[in-house]
Amino acid sequence: MEKWQEYIHSDPAIMLGKPVIKGTRITVELIVERLGYGQSLEELLVSYPHLTREGILSCLQYAAGTLNNENNHPLWLAV
Q1: d(C-alpha 32, C-alpha 9), whole Å
Q2: Could you give the domains of the chain?
Q3: What is the pLDDT of residue 72?
Q4: Which of 14, 25, 27, 44 has its CA 20 to 30 A from that of 77?
Q5: For the chain, what is the total number of helices (H) and then of strands (E)?
Q6: 7-34: per-residue pLDDT in tens?
């Protein structure tokens, strides 16, 4: 089992089945987006005190694994 599987799950009854941090309604998408806009792990932990560092890092591991399994297309084709 991948380490992220301890922290991330998907349930059709929670956030329309989007992957979330277990025990929360916080989506992987939200965490990755916030980090992408420059919010630090420490800021996320203050904003969401029930989160853990491991949960946040698991979001990144999940996202990386998802991208590894996708068919990637050159970005210049998307223009």
Answers
A1: 15
A2: 3-78 (1.10.10.10)
A3: 60
A4: 27
A5: 3, 2
A6: 999 999 999 999 999 999 999 999 999 9
CB atoms within 10 A of CB 5: 13
Tens of pLDDT, residue by residue over 27-77, are: 999 999 999 999 999 999 999 999 999 999 999 999 998 888 766 656 565
- Dihedral pair phi/psi, residue 27, rounded to 5°: -80, 155
d(CA 72, CA 26): 27
3-state secondary structure of 8: strand
Tell me how far CA of residue 74 lies from CA of 66, 67, 71, 77, 78, in angstroms.
Answer: 17, 14, 10, 6, 7
Output the pLDDT for position 5: 92
